[in-house]
Design a protein that fits this description.
By secondary structure, the protein is mainly alpha-helical. The protein contains ten helices and no strands. The chain has helices at about 10-25, 35-50, 55-65, 80-85, 95-105, 115-125, 135-150, 155-170, 175-180, 180-205. Helix 8 runs antiparallel to helix 10. The longest helix has 25 residues, at about 180-205. It is globular and about 55 Å long.
C-alpha cells in the first residue's frame, strides 16, 4: 500500500514508517505497516474534507503513523507505549503539540472516547474498514492475529466477538456516520447470517 500525499507528511512520519517497516513482527497480520498507511490515508482524506490547517494536519499525520508504534514491543497497552517511544523523535514540536499528538493516539484505544473533532478523525480512520467493502479481507487478518495471541479460540468465538464489538461501536465524525454506518450494519447482518448457518449445520450433524 502506498502513502497518499507523501510530500505533505513531516519528516518524522517517514522515520516512524521506516522503523515500522523494519521492526514490526511478522505475526502481526492486521496491525502491520499496511494498516498504518491505510489509517494515514483515511486521515489525509479527512484533513481535506474538513479543510484543516497545515499545523493541525501535521499533528494528525504524526499520530496516524505513530498510533500503533507500540506493537513493535508489545500489543498490551500499545497506545501508551507508542506515546512513550515516539516522544523522543518529536524534538521539533512544542510540549503543547506533543500533548495533542498524545491525545490523538489515546483516542484510538478501544472503547474509543475522542474528545474533539481531531480525535474523532483518528478514531474513525483507525476503524474505517468496519464500514468498507474490504472488511472481509481485513477482518480475516485480524482473526489470524487474534488466534496467534489467544484472544479468540476459533471461528465461532471470533464471530461472537466481532458481532458484539460491531454492535457496540459507533462512528464519531459526521462523514463516517453518513458514509460508513450503513455498510457496517450490512457487515453485522452478514456475520449473524454466518452464525445462523453454522447453528443449522450443527443441528443437522447431530
Amino acid at each position: 500500500m502506498e502513502l497518499d500525499n507523501k510530500k505533505a507528511y513531516p519528516k518524522v512520519c517517514h522515520q516512524i514508517l521506516d522503523e515500522l517497516s523494519e521492526r514490526l513482527p511478522d505475526y502481526l497480520h492486521y496491525h502491520c505497516l499496511n494498516h498504518t498507511i491505510d489509517v494515514a490515508n483515511v486521515c489525509n482524506f479527512y484533513i481535506d474534507y474538513y479543510l484543516l490547517s497545515d499545523r493541525v494536519a501535521n499533528l494528525i499525520r504524526i499520530a496516524a503513523v505513530a498510533h500503533d508504534y507500540g506493537y513493535i514491543f508489545d500489543p498490551k497497552e500499545h497506545e501508551e507505549r507508542s506515546i512513550i517511544e515516539v516522544r523522543p523523535m518529536l524534538t521539533e514540536y512544542s510540549d503543547k503539540e506533543i500533548a495533542v499528538i498524545d491525545g490523538l493516539i489515546r483516542a484510538t484505544k478501544v472503547p474509543q472516547k475522542p474528545r474533539n473533532l481531531y480525535e474523532q478523525i483518528l478514531s474513525d480512520a483507525d476503524l474505517d474498514y468496519l464500514g468498507r467493502e474490504d472488511y472481509p479481507q481485513l477482518s480475516q487478518a485480524l482473526y489470524e492475529e487474534f488466534l496467534y495471541f489467544g484472544v479468540v479460540e476459533n471461528q465461532t468465538h471470533w464471530l461472537d466477538v466481532q458481532i458484539r464489538f460491531l454492535e457496540g461501536h459507533q462512528f464519531h465524525t459526521d462523514w463516517a456516520k453518513n458514509n460508513r454506518t450503513e455498510n457496517k450494519h450490512k457487515v453485522i447482518d452478514g456475520l449473524k447470517a454466518k452464525v445462523s448457518a453454522s447453528g443449522r449445520s450443527s443441528r443437522k450433524a447431530s
